[in-house]
Amino acid sequence: MNRNSVSRASVPVLLILITIFFSSSCSREKSVTIAEQYGLAYAPLQIMRAQGYFEQSAPELEINWIKLGNTAAIREAVVAGEVDLGFMGLPPFLIGADHGMDWKLIAGLSICPVGLVAGDAIAEGRDSSGLDAVNPSHRIALPQPGSIQHILLSMAAEREYGDAARFDDSLVTMKHPDGMTALLSGAVDAHFTSPPYIFLENDAEAVDGSGFQTVLSGFDAFEGEFTFIGAMAAGGFIEDDAELLEAFLQAIEQSVDFINNSPEEAAGLLSASYDMPAGQILSYISREDMKYTTEIFGLERFIEFMNEQGYLSGEITSADVTLRGYRAQ
Predict the structure, then answer these.
(1) How far is residue 85 CA from its own chain's centroid?
(2) What residues are paired with 256 via a beta bridge?
(3) Buried b (16+ CB within 10 A) or exposed e, 155-188
(4) What would the mean pLDDT of 6-12 be, rounded to a whole number?
């Protein structure tokens, strides 16, 4: 075979390699990674996956779902370019934005009855109006310092003791399933948690036969309702594909509407994701204080408190961290 024959024979191979290269490049360009955390606050995301709402608007899209233990892990993944869309509490999102994170709050997801759960021995010694039985020597499990649970605890501590940092040295970083295990076993004294863990803990029995109670409600700490979990988009994702972002927002709306309009069917879909009977899931998502909505509540109040207490530099506003025209209350 002469050199010309070799060259001609190589052309089809070269074309195949070029096709593979560009196909894989296009595939990568049409992929998105979504990060979530633990609990029923994220239920619309399981509905989105089960119903394929995002894929319906973007059928060519490759969607990668990952579950991380806290917002710090999501933040690191965004910085590394490994996550495009994430779900988290408002305070850690604000802390990230204040430190220069290139991300925006694009929608709310849920309002939930979060709270600080402690054993009966602590709960019974508590003044009915506050946190008197919980002291700085107690170990308090929550997702991370700067989490929404931490900020809510700080709000209550500042109001009742004039010291927002009163419990800061008591914090133990744990994802919610591990925090529940630690509370039930006595490894920690209290757990600031969210559904379904807060419901399970209040119904549980400790190793010594005693029970558990919520000693501080998140709504009482905040003095009103607030968005517990919101949706974040990395700046590059927002800038690169406005149509894809709109498709994602539409998928969130569809998922929230499905839970609100068809709770029994939603509970059936969620049962496998949470390894619970559908009836139990239905009782949780149908609670009056358990709400799924894309509106954003409480953002300004969080910014105000976190500015006052030094969690933020005081240089960001809601307009800086949200998409233009966001719906806030």
Answers:
(1) 11
(2) none
(3) bbbbebeeebebbeebbbbbbbebbbebbbeeeb
(4) 39
Outline where 215-327 has alpha helix (H): 218-222, 235-240, 242-261, 263-274, 278-285, 299-308, 318-321
Q: What pLDDT, in 10s, does the model give residues 23-60? A: 333 333 578 999 998 899 999 999 999 999 999 988 88
H helix and E strand count, the chain: 16, 11
For each of the domains in the chain, give its residue range(s) and CATH number, in order of start. Answer: 31-112+228-321 (3.40.190.10), 115-222 (3.40.190.10)
Angle at CA 90, nearest 5°, toward 234 and 63?
A: 40
Distances (CA, A) of 44 to 64, 229, 230: 16, 11, 12
Q: 3-state class of 196 per DSSP? A: coil
- The pLDDT tens digits of the residues spanning 154-173 come to 999 999 999 999 999 999 99
Q: Which of 229, 235, 224, 232 is nearest to 305 (CA)?
A: 224
Query: Could you tell me which residues come within 8 angstroms of residue 33 by beta carbon, excluding any fewer than 6 positions away?
Result: 64, 65, 66, 77, 82, 83, 84, 85
Paired sense of beta strands 31-36 and 85-88, if any: parallel
